[in-house]
Write a structure and sequence with these properties.
The complex is a heterodimer. Chain A is an alpha+beta fold. Chain A has one domain (2-76): Glutaredoxin (3-Layer(aba) Sandwich). Chain A contains 3 helices and 4 strands. Chain A has helices at 11-26, 39-43, 68-76, and strands at 2-6, 32-36, 52-55, 58-62. The longest helix of chain A is centred in the first third of the chain and has 16 residues, at 11-26. Chain B is mainly alpha-helical. Chain B has one domain (20-199, 225-351). The termini of chain B are far apart. In chain B, helix 9 (153-163) runs parallel beside helix 15. The chains are: A alpha+beta, B mainly alpha.
Amino acid sequence: MEIKILGPGCSKCKTLDKLTREVVEKNGINATITKVEDIMEIMKYGVMSTPALVVDEKVVVKGRVPSSDELKQLLTK
Amino acid sequence: MNTDMVSRNISNMNLKSYKWLIPIILLGLWVLIYFNLQPVTNWFIDDVIKLPLGKRLTETLRFFIFEVPKVLLLLILIIFGVGIIRSFFTPERTRKALEGKSLFTGNVMASMLGIVTPFCSCSAIPLFLGFVESGIPLGVTFSFLIAAPMINEVAVILLFGMFGWKVAAIYVGTGLVIAITAGWVIGKLKLEKYVESWVYEIKTGHVDDQDAKIKFSDRIQSGYTAVKEIVGKVWIYIIIGIAVGAAAHGYVPEQFMANLMGKSVWYSVPLSVLIGVPLYSNAAGIIPIVSVLIEKGVPLGTALAFMMSVIGLSLPEMIILRKVLKMRLIFTFIGVVSLGIVFVGYIFNLIY
């Protein structure tokens, strides 16, 4: 699974990055996580509010930090 | 495994069927506490710690003990509501609503949507790019970018709690007027060439609207999240603010500021805007200062102008916007908005 965190570096983006890594590690999910900070790259996903979570090139969360339970659901289905 | 899933489903169902009760119970509690604050405060001051009636310290303490829970309760209730309302207004939807609108209508709509659409200055760039890319005029985009930070829900609640609904309404109304007019003026000035050229070359992808799937319980959830996020961040400013306000209320002479920034001083409005623009604070931090200013003889227009320039125009946001705008456009933006604020300040000082 390929996970991308989109966000230019605001505090919420860092929170999402940290939380995602925690959830992935805790549940033994096999995934690569990249943080995308380049605004041109971010815009390719059509996201207008950051942070956003992209799983396998699909935007699943934007503009907010989900709870770790929701995150687990999103990443394990 | 099958039985496990079944039992999990059952316990989920039990939980779900009672979930809708929780907000109603909480609301009942809220009403009960909110409308009994004054008697409880009085009982605590006069009967429990038995402070002498009418002394300065007693009244200062009474003011503080009453105001802190009152403002915090108001904040929690309204932020909860705002959280639910905002779940209906995503930036993507706002963009769709603004596409193809004529200049003036677009400015009016953008300013109003700026109030309800969730926005943080760190998202200013993707939002700006998203707007420009779908052909929304520059002036309309600016109306949004001006209204979104300037008309802040925490500020509205605090103004309402401390000065009453009239001042709160004036603040929202004049904020809208400034956002509409300034955006319209920027649109008329034809400044598109001062947007960095790469902005127009960028190609953005389009995501499908996932909002159709949102259930009402999710919206309630976003109400809770908003309370946790916003109240969790600003409560300390509010307590400090009310403490400062209470202290000034009892101890600083009434006309202390009147000579420096009073009505008779013609330059008080532009001066306060000039001081306010480079300063940056969140809305909760600035309100106590404003309340002290008003308390000590600074006219309402001057105080509101100061507050709008602090929370509406900020250095961090300008630095972020510099990535997409050339200096000239940034200065025009600051100039037009400042002029608008000064104008509003004068009008208020004239009326009040």
